Amino acid sequence: MAKIHQTFVCQSCGAVYNRWRGRCEACNGWNTIVEETGTAGPASGPVATRPSRARGRVFPLEGLTGEAKEAPRTPSGIAELDRVTGGGFVRGSVILIGGDPGIGKSTLLMQAGAAMAFRKERVVYISGEEAVGQVRLRAERLGLADREVELAAETNVEDIVETLSQGRPPALAIIDSIQTMWTETVESAPGTVTQVRSSAQALIRFAKTTGTAVILVGHVTKDGQIAGPRVVEHMVDAVASFEGDQGHHFRILRAVKNRFGPTDEIGVFEMTDGGLSEVPNPSALFLAGRDHAAPGTAVFAGMEGTRPLLVEIQALVAPSSLGMPRRAVVGWDPNRLSMVLAVLEAHGGIRLGAHDVYLNVAGGLRITEPAADLAVAAALVSSMSGAALPAETVYFGELGLSGAVRPVSQAVARLKEAEKLGFSKAVMPQARSDVGERGMQTEALRHIADLVAGITSGAPRGGRRKPAREWPSDDDV
């Protein structure tokens, strides 16, 4: 008879305990530990008592002496999705996609599956949250009801694997979502750590043995992280995050992990009435509608993976009536903003201690690279002094704690993108000689004081520009 053993597993991080606790010592989460009962079979005993198994075959590692061969890929038919995955879906790979509810994950995957089915590839869409009729309604809204995509509403992993094994192996299998799947080998409720891990392991085993590319949709927590144990992210081949603010029509698909391609690559989409449409030139859309004459705006020439991207940095510096001035940031690291403010105070002579500071990245994009330090500093100084920055100038560079402007990577690609969009000047760190060979005019900075001096020299008298419109007083009336 199989031995029954009880364990207590944290539903946030997957830590295992032998008794119940109110707080998890691994993630410091309260009331996240749940009792789970498992069955220890004959194979769970000591290694010496297990039945012997035949040894597996050993294959030589090809490609050591010859040319390395590319992994066979299946294009999805969506160029932005292929950019994130590295050129298409690798056969037998497993991709985990997470995102906020309603951000458009199911819409994107339905469009990708329909594009592959149009090329006579077998695509199976399995929904654990919606009925087949609801999935059909979405396909009709997107104009994809005539595509030969196989649909199913099932949550049992064993039944899913048995269904997918019938006929020719699918080129793509979409599981929406992994938190709703459950397997008969584990006696716990669906959505628990053990069920998510066991269900993902069974689907990964099916993908590796049949060559089917499997996409797992994962829920996210309040912090934006994929819910469930982090071990699932280590089990899959690629992890992508679907980001975007529902107040904006832009959606960003960002590669967090990719064994078959570059990481930190992004794909830009636009939410329309007919679904998600690709944005081949996101820089032009992110800069559309900006106010050229307004102080506090700077254009940052950044890099997202291998793609150069131009975005607008908006800053507002206003006198504060509070004892502790506010620091509000949207789309950037708040700790990085505190460092830039300290450098401006210590080495730039800009007194911001008694002012509220608001910083925003236009378009809902989130920037993570330190090359945005110089653009943020330029926007802050422009807002503080009231001097508008030149409309045809881009900024990029990293700031050191000593006030030095440090060089960044891929400067040539940034300049090429800026020149393509009509910019004629770039304020950047001191770089190599080959960077200045382009047609753009470059201004090399060594210290943050040079940037402050260049901006404040064109500031209006009095230090701050008057408001564009003032309400009439009682005397005027």
TrEMBL record:
RecA family profile domain segment(s): 70-220
Pfam assignment, any one: AAA_25
Compositional bias per record (Basic and acidic residues), positions renumbered to this chain: 468-477
GO MF term list: ATP binding; ATP-dependent DNA damage sensor activity; damaged DNA binding; hydrolase activity; zinc ion binding
A GO BP annotation: recombinational repair
InterPro entries registered for this protein in UniProt: AAA+_ATPase (IPR003593), DNA_repair_RadA (IPR004504), P-loop_NTPase (IPR027417), RecA_ATP-bd (IPR020588), Ribosomal_Su5_D2-typ_SF (IPR020568), Ribsml_uS5_D2-typ_fold_subgr (IPR014721), Rubredoxin_2 (IPR041166)
Region described as Disordered: spans on this chain: 456-477
Binding locations of ATP: 99-106
Region (Lon-protease-like): 356-477
Domain of life of the organism encoding this protein: Bacteria
Gene Ontology cellular-component terms listed: cytosol
Statement: the UniProt record of this protein carries the keyword Signal: no
Keywords, ordered alphabetically: ATP-binding, DNA damage, DNA repair, DNA-binding, Hydrolase, Metal-binding, Nucleotide-binding, Stress response, Zinc, Zinc-finger
Motif (RadA KNRFG motif): 257-261
Functional description taken from the UniProt entry: DNA-dependent ATPase involved in processing of recombination intermediates, plays a role in repairing DNA breaks. Stimulates the branch migration of RecA-mediated strand transfer reactions, allowing the 3' invading strand to extend heteroduplex DNA faster. Binds ssDNA in the presence of ADP but not other nucleotides, has ATPase activity that is stimulated by ssDNA and various branched DNA structures, but inhibited by SSB. Does not have RecA's homology-searching function.
Recorded family membership: Belongs to the RecA family. RadA subfamily.
HAMAP family: RadA_bact
Domain text: The middle region has homology to RecA with ATPase motifs including the RadA KNRFG motif, while the C-terminus is homologous to Lon protease.
Name of this protein: DNA repair protein RadA
The organism of origin for this protein: Methylobacterium brachythecii
